[in-house]
Automatic annotation (TrEMBL):
Residues 1-145 form a coiled coil. One of its GO terms (biological process) is protein transport. Keywords: Coiled coil, Membrane, Transmembrane, Transmembrane helix. The chain crosses the membrane at residues 222-246. This is Phox domain-containing protein.
Amino acid sequence: VKDLEVELETTRVNCRESMQQAVLTEKERFTQMQWDMEELRRKCLETEMKLKFEEDERLLAESTKASIIQEKQVLQQELDVAREQLKHLQKHHDEFEMKSKTDMKLLIKEVKSLRSSQLELKQQLSKLMEEKVDVERTLQKEKERMQLSHNSNAKLLHECTILQKRLQECSVNFLVEEEDKLNVDTSPSDALDLLATSDNRIGLLLAESDTLQFSYDKILKFHLAIIIYVCTILTALLPLSLLYGVSSTHRVVCMVSANLWDQAQLLAQDVENVVDALEGNTTTNDTETTNELRKMLADIFVDNASLRKQVNSVIRRALIANIKSEENEEDEIHLQKTFLSKFLET
């Protein structure tokens, strides 16, 4: 019995060890199976991913192929259009080439024509250069002439100013203005001497005015002649107012007034002609000199007007004096007749 128990116990222990060994083996197999399953799952995932990647590549290749086909069609259309344009450009090129050949022929003809006319143009150029030199020479002469004219006008203005001053010094100063009339403040003999002296001085000025080589000398001479004429009238009028009656003095006054009017008209006409000549021949350099000459002519007009006023005043004074003298003579005759009649009646 003990041996059996020992053997049973041994068998039991062996079975237990065998069971444990089997369990450990099974555990190892289960663990290995789990690892194998994990490996298979991993490989399966890798295979799926690879298949998916290949599918994506296939789809991408198909889409790329479709786009390439579409692009090929577009390029084919563009190629067709380019071929058409090339044909059109080739046609235009041929036309342009023909036109260029025609233009070249025309240009050759034009060049030949220009070469043939080059000599003529050179001759015209030389002629124009000669004309230019002549014009420049003429222009220089004209400038010199204008400068000479300007200098002559300035010299004339200076001489006219001197003559004007000397002419003013020849004025007689024996007439004194009182209210509306002029009175002689010297004796008749002194007045005649003054007028004679003024006559002589103005005659000298008239002789000196011959040195003025310009169109204005006629106006200055005429002005001096007017003054001499007025002085002559004054000289002749004083004795006439004493020697003749009213009727004779009236005739003298009419004659003097008519002559003065004619002389004034002639003077105005001459001045107008000179002013027209000034306006037609005046240049930029002569403007200032011309203005001064015009001012001098205006002063001459003023002097002549003053002289005419003096002559008219002297004539009026002579008339009044003669009228009063005649009235006094008539009163004396009337008184003599009255006294004689009373004497006869007695």
